[in-house]
Amino acid sequence: MSAESPAGGPAPRRLIVVGSGIAGLYSALLAADAGAEVVLLTKGALADSNTYYAQGGISAVLDVPAPGDTVAAHITDTLKAGAGHCDEDAVRVLCTEARLDIAGLERFGVRFDMDDDGDPSLGLEAAHSAPRILHAGGDATGAGVARALIKTVLDAQAAGRMQVIGHAQVTSLSQSDGRVAGVNFLHAGRELAIRGDAVLLATGGAGQLFARTTNPAVATADGLALAWRAGAAVADLEFFQFHPTCMVLPADALEAAGNGAEPLLISEAVRGEGAILLDARGERFMPAYHADAELAPRDVVSRSIALHLATLGDPNGHVFLDAMVVEARHGKGYLAKRFPTITQRTREAGVDWTRELVPVAPAAHYWMGGVLTDLYGRTSVPGLLAAGEVACTGVQGANRLASNSLLEGLVFGRRAVAAFLASSSASPSAPALSPRTGDRLASSAAGPAAHATTALSGPPELPVMFNDASASISWQFETVPAPGPIEVSFGEAGPFSRVALRRLMTANAGVLRDGGLLREAGAVLGAWASADDPFTVPDSFDPREHEDANLLLAAQLLVHAARERRESLGAHYRSDSVPADAAVGDFDKRYTMSRKASLVND
């Protein structure tokens, strides 16, 4: 017997959304608008997310694009940046449906920057062949988008259409009848649980794995760890993108800020406007490393900086960003108008970038890998969905194209909601949707007249990737990755701490890698894991202990994937790279791992 609502009809199905970045907020709003019961959990405040700190923008080819721009060009640029490792179907979905979700954002209160003619102001960023980047508030796009969505979410909560629980650390997924059926979480010193018909993970990335990162403190691989412990497949974990231009604070500023010093990302858009990179000798070096110079893909720029510093004998040093050329080209006050946040933050750090060079170095920024999903956000575990940075749709490939990340959270977050709304609670496996379904839900997001629930239809069929894993998954590790051989020369690992973990990952699994460094990292991580098993849920009411376990687990998985891929590809660069045909068969295929573990039972 199915549950009934007070009005006498079937009770609305409950979607539990974990995370409050763009994927989580947008998905929750769409599901609530479609009549679902939505519970949104975030482990901090609603604004604590990578989305809020995003400076770049959102890429999209609009109905009236920039001259010469096309959806096909956006697809080509994305595939090129992804180093041949992208899922072409996913990329086609992303670029084709982008304009629909831009309209959806506008319906939820987001206001994009306009030019003097009242048309959308489209920017050019690295590795894009045409201006197609939308901004909201100049260099504070993420904050502008997040604020608008948060306001709409709070309005929905006030109207009784959504429940929001802040400062809730989700610790595990519960299951019933072979599918995910809820979450367990810590809140105000208590362990609580919520049941639901499905869980959508939108928890973001894991920048806190590394010593220098553009991510906020909440980016601790929580969603990845939750999914892995539940038995979900993960993929592409060796591909971690480092943003090439994170400001290096002067020594006095660091000392004054102490542990509270926040890294400042100097947006890709600054180089898109014409800023150049110089070394300590004042020489421009990027043209020697890539034909596109400062506009090369992010992994190329980051690696070029690291290699150039090593050549100069200063591997832990920094280079300089010259934005003065931008001010000189466009006139006094242009930088302050175009990049108000960066102008303020650099000035607060003691640098006037209209008159001085800005010291910069690469910092961990975005994880291309994550929980493996199909084109509708479904993982290999029934009832578990994922969207945004925590997911691996295949759209980012081996290296993300600038400003495609916020877009991915929108497009595939919406598609995950479509899958949830179309699935039957009586079936342990979510049926696949016809392509028309996603399009119609996108249209309903873009316009208030249509209602999402009228858009749901499609033949029930499982996605090929989970019906026949051998058809598209070339490597699958069914057991927990072994820590690897302990190097006799490496010595004692020392006690685990988050600082020690971040230093280890930066030194051994950062921008530049090789087999020896990765073996050493695996040995240390294995020693730490033997003392504090990260593969089980910590028996603790301290959220930080759960974060530490999640980071240690994510580090082991990343290092394992990086060791397995012996060929350099995209953001994964090994100085001991072997020829593709000697590395593995079909070296550009996706590395997939799954634990095959039981879920946490109620």
Main features:
single chain, 602 residues, alpha/beta, 5-stranded parallel beta sheet, 5-stranded mixed beta sheet, 20 helices, 22 strands, globular, disordered N terminus, disordered C terminus
Q: Could you write a compact summary of the structure shown?
A:
With about 600 residues, the chain is an alpha/beta fold. Helices cover about 35% and strands about 15% of the residues.
The description of the largest β-sheet is: 5 strands, parallel
Mean pLDDT, to the nearest integer, reads: 85
Helix count, per DSSP? 20
So what's the overall shape? Answer: globular
Main sheet strand line-up: 6-2-1-10-18
Helix-and-strand structural type: alpha/beta
Instruction: Tell me the distance between the termini.
Output: 21 Å
The fraction of residues in strands falls at 15-25%
**Uncertain ranges:** 1-7, 254-260, 425-440, 448-490, 597-602
Q: Helicity range of the residues?
A: 25-40%
Question: Could you give the count of β-strands?
Answer: 22
Radius of gyration: 23 Å
Can you offer a commentary on this structure?
The chain has 20 helices and 22 strands. It has 602 residues and is of the alpha/beta class. The longest helix is centred in the C-terminal third of the chain and has 22 residues, at 543-564. The relative contact order is 0.16.
